[in-house]
Design goal:
mainly alpha, 6 helices, flat
Length: 178
């Protein structure tokens, strides 16, 4: 049975993590090793994929690639969380801007990635070059799209943004006749 009303905690794992300050502090303190691990794993995966680009890799290597991929994913999450906690520990204009941008950028990103990847594929660029191009291009296009959407009153609700306040009249006040 869970804790009674008024007891510390609610018994949910996400509540534990949200309130466990030492975990967040550890991610901030040790942010560099997970970043290096994620980047190293990414390079290894691209290297093995280029070596085995025309043939199926052995099953043992495929299993190892899957394990490395999982390590890359979690290491990247820990690194990003650590850097975010270190660089943006509280409220700021940048955090308010980015908080507003989350949903519009989320809506745009998949379409942008597919469009960029489709147009980059015929160029035959090596994955080590293509991936950063795709990431930077997607980032730039999504934020350009957000900047456009947030300025167009009719587009805002379509991307999850609140409407802009109505502009006040020019100050000319007409007396009501009675």
């Amino acid at each position: 049975m869970g804790p009674a009303a008024g007891d510390e905690g609610s018994g949910h794992a996400h509540d534990f993590l949200a309130s466990a300050g030492s975990i967040w502090q550890a991610m901030q303190r040790y942010r560099w090793p997970p970043l290096l691990l994620a980047l190293s794993g990414w390079v290894l995966l691209n290297l093995s994929n280029s070596i085995y680009s025309s043939v199926e890799p052995p099953e043992l290597l495929r299993q190892l690639q899957r394990a490395v991929w999982g390590i890359v994913e979690w290491s990247a999450i820990v690194a990003v969380t650590g850097f975010a906690g270190r660089l943006a520990p509280g409220d700021s204009p940048a955090l308010r801007y980015l908080s507003q941008a989350v949903f519009p950028v989320y809506i745009l990103h998949q379409t942008v990635i597919v469009a960029f990847a489709h147009n980059l594929k015929p160029l035959g660029i090596h994955p080590v070059i293509e991936a950063p191009l795709l990431i930077v291009g997607t980032f730039a296009a999504c934020f350009a799209g957000y900047e456009l959407v947030r300025r167009i009153r009719l587009m805002r609700p379509l991307f999850g943004l609140k409407g802009l306040p109505r502009k006040k009249s020019s100050g000319v006040v007409q007396a009501a006749s009675t």
